[in-house]
Design brief:
elongated, about 40% strand, mainly beta, about 675 residues, 74 strands, 3 helices, 18-stranded parallel β-sheet
């Protein structure tokens, strides 16, 4: 049997022999197919003799020269002898300087050429010039003053199609693969346009400065690059801009991640008013930061993720997580703006803020956005602290028509979202489903902050538009408030589980809580299955339905106060409402002292299916007080009859039923299938 012990050595020797044979056999030949003339032995000779608009064809082989293009020229390599066909490699390797330079406002095209082993930038474009690259390799170049691979400055523009820029190094500056300066532009297109395996102190793949732009189209990729301090994949500064769309990717695959070895922004680092736009199913996936911002780190910058784009790629069993050893697995934003619409942020892992960490920033998650993932293990994960999906401190968070799904805070609070230190959360039509926290607030935790969660109705809804479903925590499984102001309205809080207190909602430490038009049902906790208030908290419930929660319905202790008006508390195995609270115009199982309270079966339509509509004969119809609530949890107007109804639903019969009741006062079964509440997002 042949030994393989020396196989690597034999391969190296073979490669050296092939390289030597190529160099020894080379006889350079270049022809001008536009203006004619002799066949030249060097590219520089042909360029010097060419006129603007000429096309030069270059025979395969190694050209040891630095090519300067200061005319409008096209240079095409890869031709075989006779220039009739292509089939080899044309390689430019200078003994000094850049491999190819384009200057003087020239317009040039470079095709089918490899530029490698330059001791400066492989390609340099300056003085407002334009360069088109097609099927070009830029590799193994090392720039000391500029980029390793391609250096573009002075408002110049490069358009690259089927181009690979790899194994380049910027030894002293930024931009291992590409550096864009002074308003310059690089546009990458076609699925083989790749910037990978480059290295720099900052901006391992690409560095943008002074209002420059990187445009990525048609599956272009920036991956497997490394930086020391900032931007393993991309570093954008000075008002620069990155646009990636149509399945383009920054980071790709568990082995092809961009990486920062001792700093921030594994995929992207953006500062100085720069803007990053990821759209149309583009990805920021599989990046790593040794500190903060695995996918992206923003300081005084803007990130826009939209139109089906993804932060953290999940494809079946294929998971590409953005990871930060510090905070912000997906995104870390400080003094910045993050806008996400119709996109997914999943698979982020960090000590705190698995998906997003926001500090003094504005975060907006809009229609169709998913923060998390249906598969529990592939959602966002805070490994040691708070905010599995998001951690916001001193920030403003706006959520609308989106889902916070299956995120985990393994170390502390806020499985879905943690808002702290004077943050503001404004949420409309939002679902928190299946999130988990080891301590407080499985779905949402609010500490020393302000939160409003409410419905927005274009017309009557089929289910309460805000939902807290299947979240788990030690206390406050659905929602937890500490020293905060919380408004929760038009919500279905159901099937949440706390191991100690507050299956649905828990508020403490002088919090102020207002709950309006909420259905709190089928939650579980040893104490306060529906909700709990403690430590000088005041909690006001208007038109809420509290039903069939495990153990006690409500708990109140340590100086907290509870006021209920127009509410229903029914179906709890122990105490529905603790003694000594202010309760008026309510239906309480077992009775309760207060103005016009009743103790009669509310006749819910389908409680087992979370349908807490009132049946046609319910004693809760037209027995409430006017308290300024003008709609119910589905958006139907209040009152429908002579007075408001008790609970979250206003009894509004179907037109045929209303007509029959007025005509004959007959008891017909209520049929409003469109008013059944949902059970969270569809699988």
């Amino acid at each position: 049997m042949t030994s393989t012990r020396n196989a690597p050595v034999r391969c190296m020797l073979a490669a050296m022999l092939i390289s030597l044979a190529t160099r020894c056999a080379f006889a350079g030949m270049v022809t001008n197919i536009t203006s004619g003339g002799p066949v030249y032995g060097a590219i520089t000779q042909a360029v010097a003799a060419a006129a603007n608009g000429d096309t030069l064809l270059v025979i395969t082989g190694l050209y040891r020269e630095s090519v300067a293009l200061q005319k409008h020229l096209t240079v095409r390599g890869g031709y075989l002898a006779g220039f009739a066909s292509t089939g080899g490699v044309t390689q430019i390797t200078p003994s000094s300087g850049n491999g190819v330079s384009v200057a003087n406002g020239s317009t040039a095209t470079l095709a089918n050429i490899t530029v490698r082993d330059a001791k400066s930038s492989g390609i340099a474009v300056s003085q407002q010039s334009f360069l088109a690259l097609s099927n070009v390799l830029v590799r193994n170049n090392a720039g000391a003053a500029g980029a390793g691979g391609v250096d573009v400055r002075d408002g110049s523009r490069v358009m690259a199609e089927s181009v690979q820029i790899f194994y380049n190094t910027a030894t002293n500056q930024g931009g291992g693969g590409v550096r864009l300066r002074e308003g310059s532009v690089l546009e990458l297109s076609a699925n083989t346009s790749l910037i990978y395996l480059n290295y720099a102190p900052q901006g391992g793949g690409v560095m943008l400065e002074d209002g420059s732009s990187l445009i990525m189209r048609n599956q272009a990729k920036v991956d497997a690059n490394t930086a020391v301090t900032r931007g393993g994949g991309v570093y954008a500064t000075g008002g620069s801009r990155v646009d990636a769309d149509n399945y383009s990717a920054i980071g790709w695959g568990s082995s092809n991640f961009n990486h920062v070895t001792n700093g921030y922004g594994g995929g992207i680092y953006a500062d100085g008013g720069s803007t990053i736009i990821i759209s149309n199913r583009a990805f920021i996936s599989g990046n790593r930061a040794s500190r903060d911002g695995g996918g992206a780190f923003l300081t005084n910058a803007t990130l826009i993720v939209t139109d089906g784009a993804v932060m953290g790629l999940i494809m079946g069993n294929y998971v590409c997580t953005n990871v930060a050893l510090g905070s912000g697995g997906g995104v870390y934003a400080v003094n910045s703006t993050v806008i996400v619409d119709d996109a997914t942020l999943s698979g982020g892992q960090a000590s705190e803020g698995g998906g997003i960490y926001a500090d003094r920033s504005f975060v907006q998650l809009g229609t169709g956005t998913v923060l998390g993932n249906r598969q529990f293990a592939n959602a966002n994960y805070a490994t040691a602290g708070s905010g599995g999906g998001m951690y916001a401190r001193r920030s403003t968070v706006v959520l609308s028509d989106m889902t916070v799904l299956s995120n985990v805070a393994a170390g502390a609070d806020g499985g879905g979202i943690m808002a702290a230190q004077s943050s503001t959360v404004m949420a409309m039509n939002v679902t928190f489903d299946g999130n988990a926290a080891v301590s407080n607030g499985g779905g949402l935790a609010v500490a020393s902050s302000y939160a409003v969660i409410e419905g927005a109705f274009a017309g009557p809804a089929t289910a309460p538009p805000c939902q807290f479903m299947r979240n788990t925590a030690m206390v406050g499984a659905g929602c937890h408030a500490r020293g905060s102001t919380l408004l929760l309205s038009d919500a279905l809080v159901a099937s949440n589980s706390a191991s100690v207190n507050g299956g649905g909602v828990l508020a403490l430490e002088s919090s102020h809580v207002l709950m309006v038009n909420d259905v709190v049902a089928h939650n579980s906790a040893p104490f306060g299955g529906a909700a709990g208030a403690a430590y000088s908290t005041d909690m006001l419930l208007l038109h809420c339905t509290l039903a069939h929660n495990g153990a006690t319905g409500l708990t109140v202790n340590f100086g907290a106060t509870l006021v209920l008006t127009n509410c229903i508390a029914w179906g709890h195995s122990s105490v529905n409402i603790p003694a000594g609270q202010t309760v008026h115009y309510c239906d309480v199982e077992g009775g309760y002292t207060g103005t016009r309270n009743i103790a009669a079966d509310p006749q819910f339509v389908g409680p087992a299916a979370l349908d807490y509509d009132l049946g046609i004969g319910s004693p809760c119809i037209d027995t409430g007080a006017v308290v300024g609530v003008t709609h119910d949890c589905l958006g139907y107007g209040r009152p429908y009859g002579s007075a408001p109804d008790l609970g979250a639903y206003e009894f509004v019969p179907e037109p045929a039923l209303a007509f029959a009741a007025l005509a004959f006062i007959c008891a017909l079964r209520r049929t409003r299938p469109s008013r059944k509440p949902g059970s969270g997002p569809k699988s």
